[in-house]
Specification:
single chain; about 110 residues; Calnexin lumenal domain, non-globular proline-rich hairpin domain; two-stranded antiparallel sheet
Length: about 110
């Protein structure tokens, strides 16, 4: 349960109010100047600031990620492959273009 008085909308750190842009800083060459951040003093008076996350508790029974145990299979023969049997009807055409019919172009 979130502690009472938690500041959800307050950031943990804020730009330093005492920081000043250096005189030699050139916005075109160096880019936009961003003030360094400091701890937000409003967070000291409250139980906390920012997004609240439920604390994690350690589980003493946790043994790590579960993996299926490897057990021996005495009936294992190996990786499956199909039987190779002779096919008397198999025909391979080594010159397929010779056996094509003539293609006739009809002009309209």
């Amino acid at each position: 349960m979130k502690p009472e008085g938690w500041l959800d909308d307050e950031p943990l750190s804020i730009p330093d109010p005492d920081a000043e842009k250096p005189e030699e800083w050139d916005d075109e060459e160096d880019g936009d100047w961003i003030a360094p951040t400091v701890h937000n003093p409003a967070c000291d008076a409250a139980p906390g600031c920012g997004e609240w996350k439920r604390p994690n508790k350690a589980n003493p029974k946790y043994k790590g990620k579960w993996y299926a145990p490897m057990i021996d299979n005495p009936a294992y023969i190996g990786e499956w492959s199909p039987r190779k049997i002779p096919n008397p009807g198999y025909f391979e055409d080594l010159e397929p273009v010779k056996h094509l019919n003539m293609i006739v172009r009809i002009s309209t």
